[in-house]
Amino acid sequence: MKTNLSIILLLLAVSFQSCTGNFNSKSENHVSDEREIEGASKLKVSGIFNLYLSQGDKPALRIEGDEALVQKLKVNRNGDWLELDFEKVNEKFFNKNSSLDVYLTLGDLENFAFEGVGNIKTETPFIVNDIKIKGDGMGNLKLELIAKKIDADFAMLGNINLKGKTDEINLTNDGMGNVDASDLIAQTMTLKTSGIGRVAVHCEGDLSLIVDGIGAVSYTGNPNVIKEEINGIGKVTRN
Asked: Residue span of the signal peptide, if any (predicted)?
């Protein structure tokens, strides 16, 4: 992970610990706000909230949490992108009861970029053709995908869980935390990791591995390992 990103994430962890630690609590000003949105296949998310994704025919957005936070969340359409973002606030805006949960339904998802603080989870599997994912920030990520091709680039502080099926995946990890993709059944995989933590994957076809730094990689599926490059003190284990 790049030095400047590490510093930013550590500062976020200190500044917003009370906020993320109480995402499931409800204040006296807890509200639910449903907003109309147009369908989009590209999603950009930044801010401090939990995001729950579902796939469905009718696009929908529901925001639940402290009323002041709900009002600060902005929903914009920028070309092909649907953007969820906060107005600028400082840490004094949050209190120990602050909470914000965002429930979003989309028909398709071909590009997903996120940064900030919070947990992200798919509540239903997303069935897509090709999808690009880029993740920065702090939080836990749980995605279930059925895709022809996945391009994923992570530089996060937190744990990542991927499951589902894909014909091909290019996975890059430059973060701090564990990546568990052992339940993502891949036919072809290229994995590059220079982060800190464990990475577990499942591949049943051609597998290419590049491991830098001090990370540890394990894999299942009896793949055909066409490349295995280990730099530093990282290690690779076949399970």
From this structure: 1-20
Range of the domain at 59: 29-89+96-106
pLDDT tens sequence across 129-162: 999 999 998 999 999 999 999 999 999 999 999 9
203 vs 189: CA distance, rounded Å: 7
Pairing of strands 73-78, 81-86: antiparallel
CA–CA gap between residue 178 and residue 88 (Å, rounded): 31
Both tokens of 175, joined, read: 């973060």
**134 and 101 share a domain?**
no
Taking the CA atoms of residue 87, residue 88, residue 89 and residue 91 in that order, the dihedral angle to the nearest 10 degrees is 120
Which of these, 165, 101, 175, 83, lies nearest to 131 by C-alpha position?
A: 165
Q: Is the pTM of this model over 0.85?
A: yes
How far apart CA 76 and CA 47 sit, in angstroms, is 14
> What one-letter code names the amino acid at 24?
N
Q: What CATH number does residue 133 fall under?
A: 2.160.20.120
Contact 70, 100 (CB under 8 A): yes
Same domain, 230 and 184: yes
